[in-house]
Amino acid sequence: AAMSRKRLQQLVDSLGRSAKHFNKNEVECLIKVFDALVAKSSNRFAAVGFDRNSFRDTLHSAFGMTDDMIMDRVFRTFDRDNDSCISVVEWVEGLSVFLRGTLEEKIKYCFEVYDLNGDGYISKEEMFQMLKNSLLKQPSEEDPDEGIKDLVDIALKKMDYDHDGKLSFMDFEKAVRDENLLLEAFGPCLPDIK
Amino acid sequence: GGNPTATVIALCSMRDFNLAQETCQLAIRDIGCLEVLINLLDTEEIKCQIGSLKILKEISQNTLIRHAIADLGGLQIMVKILDSPDKDLKCLAAETIANVARFKQARRTVRQHGGIKRLVGLLEGISVGSTSLTPCQTKDTEIARCGALALWSCSKSVKNKEAIRKAGGIPLLARWLKCSHANILTPVVGTLQECASEPSYRLAIRTEGMIENLVKNLSSEHEELQMHCASAIFKCAEDKETRDLVRQHGGLQPLSVLLGNTENKKLLAAVTGAIWKCAISRENVSRFREYKVVEALVELLTDQPEEVLVNIVGALGECCQEPINRTIIRKCGGIPPLVKLLTGTDQALLVNVTKALGACATEPENMMIIDRLDGVRLLWSLLKNPNPDVQASAAWAICPCIQNAKDAGEMVRSFVGGLELIVNLLKSKNKEVLASVCAAITNIAKDEENLAVITDHGVVPLLSKLANTNNDKLRRHLAEAISHCCMWGSNRVAFGETKAVAPLVRYLKSNDPSVHRATAQALYQLSEDPSNCITMHENGVVKV
C-alpha cells in the first residue's frame, strides 16, 4: 500500500549507498520489515515511521533489550532529525551501524547513546544515571549509592585520559580501542551475539 | 555483585594492576577473587567471560594460581568454552589452558574432559602460505596459534601425545607447518618436537613430508623456532630414513652454521644434538666434513654446559667413523679436552667420551697422546663406575687402546689392581658389559705375563660360566676371549673341566659369521687337548 514501485526502487538505491553495510536485497528486506512492524502499531503516525513505544517494543522483541533508559537513548540516536519518529531512512541507516558497524562506527554510536545531554561529554552524573541499577542492593547497606559512586569512580579512572573529570569522545574512543570490552561500558546498547 | 555492565567495568579496571607481579597474583587469590573469576566463566555472558579470562590468563603464569584454578574446576569450564562460537573467547580460553596445563594433573584433567579433541579442532582453519591475510584468515590463524599453544603444554604427558594423534592432530600440525608466520610456527614445532619422543610421531613426521619444513625453518630469524626445529630433528634422526631426508633437503648445512651461535645455550644443545644423531649415517659425516664441523665442535669442547657437551662429544664420536676425522681431531687439539672429560661424573657424558676416545685410539699417533695424558688409566678406573653403560663403554674403549699402545702389556700391568678389577666384571649381569669385557680380555691375553695374572684371578671358570648364552654379540667376544686364553698353561684343560666346550659347539648353529669365525678359532685351540676333542665329537661338532 505504501509506496509506488518506482519510489521504492529509488529509496533502495539511495539507501544501498548510504547504509554501507547492507546490499540492495537486504535493504529491500529491511524496508519490508519496517512496513510490517509499523503497520502493526495502531498509531496515526504509522504511515511516517516508528514512534518511541513501537520502536522500544521492537528493540525488546527482536534484540532482547530490557533497559528502559538505554532503549530510550537508542531511539534518540536513531532519530537523527529529532522529530520523535524514526523514518525508514533512519531505520535502515541506524541498523547498518547497530548490526554491522565497524568498530569506529560503533564507538561513535555508543558515545552518542551514553552522552545523555548531547554536550559532547559523558559526565559523572550521566554515568551515575546509567549505572544506577547495576549493583545488587545489599539490605544492610546504609548508602546504596556508595557502591554506584565507587563504580563511577573506577570507570572514570580507567577511561578519563585527559583527566578533566569527564569523558570526551577522544577519551572514550581511546579507552575502547585499548580494551574492546568497554564499548558498552555503561549499558548494553548493541545487539547481543546470542 | 552486579549486573554484567558493572562486572565488565570492574574486570577491565582490574587489568590495570600489575598482574605479572607475584604479590598481586597472590592477593587476588587470597581475597577469594579466583572463585569469582571462575564463576564468571561459568555464565553465559560473553563479555564477562572474556573479561575474566583476560585476567586469568595473566595470573595463571604463577604456579600457585595455576593449581588453585585447577582445584576450583576452572579447567573443565575453559574446555567447555572452547565450543563457543565467539572467536575471541576461544582464543583466550585456549591461551589460559596453555598456562594452567603446565603441571601433570591439569593436563590429565584437560584430557579427561574432552579438551584435547576440542583443541585439535581449533587447528582446523585454513592455513595460507603468503604473508598477507584477510582479517578472517588472521583470526583463524590466531585461533590455531592459541590451540597450538595449549596443545604444546598438554603434550608433555604421554597419554596426551597419544590423544592428540587419535584426534587427528598430526595432519593438521603438518599443514600449519607449511605456514610462514613464526608466531604460529613456534608452538606447532614445539608440540611436534615434544611428541617426537613417540615412534608413531617420528614416523608421521617423516612420511608427511615435515622434515623439509623443519629444515627450512632452521634458517628462520627466530632463535626459539630454530631451537625447536633442531630439537625435533635431534629426536627424529634416530631413524635412518630421517637422517637421509635431512641430508637430501639440505639440512646439514644450516645445522653446521648454527654451531656459530654459542650464546644461546639451549639452541646450541639442540643443534649439537641434531648433528650428533645425523652423524650416525656415514654419508652425513662426509658432508659435515665439508662444512668443517669437526673443527667447530672441537673448539666448543671447553666451557660449555653439560647438556651441550654430551652432544658435542657424541657427535665427535660418530664423526670418527671417517678415519680422516680422527686426525683432524688431533690436529685441532681435541684429544686433551676429551681426556679431561673422563674425570667428570655425568654418566651420559662419560659414555660418549669413552666412545669418542675409543674411536680416536685406533690411530697410533692419537694413542700416544692419550697415553701420555694418562687416559688409559682414567678409562680403566671408569670400570669402577656403578653405571653399567659407563662400564661397558669404557671396556670397549680400552680395546683399541691396548691394540695401539706402545708397550701395551707393560701399561696394563701398571694399573694397580686393574687386572683383578676387569676379571671381576665378568660377574656382571649386563650383557653389554660382559661382551665388552670379553673383548678387552681378548686383547689383554695377547701379552703372556698378563695372561698368567688373569688366569690366577680365575678368568677361566668365569668365562666358562658365561658360555651358555644365545646372545650372538656375547658369544662372539666370549669365543675370542676363550681362544686367546687357551695359550697359557693348562687353561685348555681347565676350560674343558669347567664345561665350556659343549656350549661352544652350539654356537656354530648361529647365523652370524663372526660368531662362526670366533668359535672355530676357539674350538681349534681347545682341540689341542684330547679330552676336549672327545667332548666336541660327542656334541656332533663334525656334522655342524
Automatic annotation (TrEMBL), chain A:
This is EFCB1 protein. The keyword Repeat applies. The keyword Repeat applies. It comes from the Eukaryota. InterPro entries: EF-hand-dom_pair, EF_Hand_1_Ca_BS, EF_hand_dom, Recoverin. Residues 66-101, 102-137, 147-182 form the EF-hand domain. CDD domains: EFh. It holds the Pfam family EF-hand_7. It comes from Grus americana (Whooping crane). One of its GO terms (molecular function) is calcium ion binding. SMART domains: EFh. Keywords: Calcium, Metal-binding, Repeat.
TrEMBL record, chain B:
It holds the Pfam family Arm. ARM repeats lie at residues 73-115, 417-459. SMART domains: ARM. InterPro entries: ARM-like (IPR011989), ARM-type_fold (IPR016024), Armadillo (IPR000225). It comes from the Eukaryota. PANTHER family: ARMADILLO REPEAT-CONTAINING PROTEIN 4 ARMC4 (PTHR46241), OUTER DYNEIN ARM-DOCKING COMPLEX SUBUNIT 2 (PTHR46241:SF1). This is ARMC4 protein. It comes from Grus americana. The lineage of its organism: Eukaryota, Metazoa, Chordata, Craniata, Vertebrata.
